[in-house]
Amino acid sequence: MSSKAEPQNPLPWGEELPSFLPVEEAGVGSSRLPPPGQPVLRIRGVNHYFGTGDTRTQVLFDNTLEVMPGEMVIMSGPSGSGKTTLLTLIGGLRTLQEGQIEVWDADRGNYRTLRGVDEAELVQIRRLIGFIFQRHNLFDSLTALQNIRMAQQLKNSRPDPDSDARELLTYLLLGEKDIQGKPQKNRFHYKPAQLSGGQRQRVAVARALVNRPKLVLADEPTAALDANSGMAVVALLQSLARQRSEAEMRRLVRSPEEAGESGRLGEWQVPLLKRIATERGTTSLIVTHDARIMNLADRIVHMERGRIESNVVVAERLFVREGLRQCPAFAAILPEEQEKIADHILIGVHPNEPVRPDHLAAKPGCVEVYQPGEVIVRQGEPVNEHSKFYLIRRGTVEVLRETGGLPEKLTEMGPGRYFGEVALLMDQPRNATVRALTRVEVYTVNRVTFDRYRSVSLPFIERILANFRAGSRV
Amino acid sequence: MAVPPVPLAWKNLAHDKVRFALFASGIGFAVVLMGVQLGIMNAMLDANTVLIERFKGELVLVNPSRASLMFREGVSRRRIEEAKSVAGVVHAAPVYLEYQSANLRHTASDPGERTHTRRIRVIGVNPDDDVLDLPGVTAEQWKQLNTPGTALYDRKSRAHPDQTNHPGQSVFGKLEPDVQTELAGRTITLIGGFELGFDFSNDGSVVVSSDTFSDWVRKPYYPINPMSEADLVVVKLEPGADPEAVKRALQEKFGGGDVLVLTRDEMIAREKQFWWTNTPIGFAFGAGVVLGFIVGMVICYQILASDVADHLPEYATLKAIGYTNGYLSRVVIEESLILAAVGFILGMAVTFGAYLMLTDITGLPMRLTPGRFGLILGLTVVMCVASGLLAVGKVKKVDPADVF
Question: Which of B6, B19, B21, B213 is deepest in the core (most CB within 10 A)?
Fold first, then answer.
């Protein structure tokens, strides 16, 4: 049994948040966000074909994905892997042929389905989404403000749309201040021909975000932007996703030297950003190769040849990797092999979110769920190659040891802690009982899996040891 | 607070001012084409009815067999007296017309310059009947017209083809008061001018008294009872009398057969109908109007289609963010209406100038009546909106997935 100190919390935004989103913003019955544990976007078994007859070619194969509110999802994959096709299907820009896609409608408080709907319904779905395209596609005949108004006309939900658009443009460095706060001529009434490529792209970003959509679909949104503008866009997307801590915001205000290629925010942009990003729970699906954004992703979806090959929740991966790393039993395995074990048991659900039966069914044998009072391992139970190691994902367990016929409570353990590691190495019976105090979710690794990765590591480790011993003799 | 609307259609068109000017010129050209063709067509028809328009009476009696003014069938003088007895009729006055047998000798003072004599329309009225509205003719001149051998001449007779050497002269030579010339081979004195104009069947007109008409024009051919029939009878009604009621009463009085009672407008329409159906005016100039319409449609379609093509990514973006096909179609139709409005204003300004110029050159009555103005406006709008509807197909086909 583990008796180590609480492992360092691997979550990037700290232990304080009890859920993926602040409770008040994710409450049941809220018309703004889906019920807790439910995604904002649900994709199931999506196939897609181009062409007809003999030229009919399948380009998407049985893709399934769920995206939770407030997630920043990066879609990666080589050219032609189907990222853009999937994006256009999600956005209702193409007719869904097979499978199902559902998008949360915050105004109605339920899902809108994209399968078998008419053009009018598709139009309604498109209005739920903020699109950022690689090309700005602004009207040459309209000023920056007028181009944004074209989007505002569709929703008309802000109390003062004109100043809202101006604030957004100002935040995106097209207003009366440059990043250092020095006065500059605003570009509100400039037509695209009078703007640089990056400035046009920023107007297009403002157009996409001015209605504060709950879902943003973006194709290389920062490709045409300089570092600081790119940072402004990313910080805005993040702030629309969830509340940022003051310290985190401060970190974005840094000197040009510190910012380097990553960009920075101006001192004056921070309060403006807070005022603009009053909405929460905006989910972004971004196709990008920009490392600045990749590093900020909550979920990375990788596509190959029309299939979602991996769907990794970054926080979950960090959580599991850190959990395994803390366990001495895994010291016998090379770090990259440890990572493979971790990736093998990931289920694509944030550790702060409870798993649902369909998650368990989708990846059986990776996570087990126990109800309060249920025994997970029992003292004296025989151990064999099918016995498991447990990493607590959610909930609390108590560890009990029976001495002299009386059970003694040794400790309680919560998320990130592990137990049952002895079963990976030896055939000794379990030396304690572990019982769920609350609903408990645990990742599991059995000895067969462990040994498979250890066998890869062993020759390498033994070679190092051999070298070490040979060196000692000298 | 509402979002201020973005006038996208106007902005798209007016963004490039040079291009917009060319667009407007294109539509304006079509408007001019339609306007001028329509103007000439109407002028040709109007020219034949100017005389009827000048009748100072609400009703006209005509022989039903007389399909046009230029024919000969007349109304018995007896009918004039009968008409006078019908309630509501103040006066019934005969009008005599001769198109075929009266020539006017060329009025050049130098006999060497005189060209051959030309046929002229002779209008005979009783000067005291006050049956013709001829602005410019004084009461004194009407009185003077009672003198046999005097005539009023048409200042808007067909112009002399060589205006360089004969400025201001008509094909009949120099027409002015006190000129003595010959009408139907007999000396006649011109005493004053009026403005009526020429048409298909005559190069000009002279107005003479009934007596002069009888002696100069009719007697040589109808020596016995030359004035037994009037060509037309103009009926003047009491103030407030209902023309339709009096018309019915007259028609009942005459019974069917030899007299047709028409309002002045019906008479004008009947005359125009004759020329419309019996000459290629309608086809020739109607085809011109249709051609202008088609040219305009093609120009307008090209403008709108190229505008859609130029803005395909932007329209696709609008569709992607949630605009409907209906909105995009409205933008295209609005553009077509803007083009129609601007092209119409531009085109009508030119057309109006062309009317003045053509009237000046040809003497044809090019009139831009409210009805014709409305017709050209209607044609322009239909032309542009039809083009817009064709271009709407293109914008509907825009694929929002193309934006990625």
Answer: B213
- Which residue in B251, B185, B209, B194 sits closest to B93, CA to CA? B209
- What would the pLDDT profile of A103-124 be if each residue is shown by its tens digit? 998 888 889 999 888 888 899 9
- pLDDT classification of A4: cutoffs 50, 70, 90: very low
**What is the extent of the structural domain holding B148?**
54-264
The answer to whether the Cβ–Cβ distance between A93 and B404 falls below 8 Å is yes
> Do B189 and B311 fall within a single domain?
no
Question: Which residues between 295 and 334 in chain B have a beta carbon less than 8 angstroms from any beta carbon of chain A?
Answer: 311, 313-314, 316-325
Query: What does the pLDDT look like over B305-351, one tens digit per residue?
Result: 998 888 888 999 999 999 999 999 999 999 999 999 999 999 999 99
Enumerate residues 168 to 197 of chain A having a beta carbon within 8 A of any beta carbon in chain B: 191
Assess if residue B1 is contained within a domain.
Answer: no
Residue A428 structural domain: 327-455
Residue A177 CA from chain centroid, whole number: 33
Q: Are A203 and A169 in contact (CB under 8 A)?
A: yes
Q: A135 CB near a chain B CB, below 8 Å? A: yes
Using a CB-CB cut-off of 8 Å, the residues of chain A touching B323 are: 123, 154
Q: Residue B272 in contact with residue B49, Cβ under 8 Å?
A: yes
Q: B36 by DSSP, 3-state: which?
A: helix
Q: Please answer yes or no on whether B324 and A123 come within 8 Å at the CB atom.
A: yes
Among residues B210, B232, B264, which one ends one of the domains? B264
Which residues of chain A have a CB within 8 Å of the CB of B325? 119
The tokens for A395 are 């909930």
Q: How far A82 CA sits from the closest chain B CA (Å)?
A: 12
Please enumerate in sequence order all residues whose Cβ is within 8 A of that of B314, keeping only pairs 6 or more positions apart, or say none. A137, A138, A139
- How many independent structural domains does chain B possess? 2
Whether residues A41 and A93 fall in one domain: yes
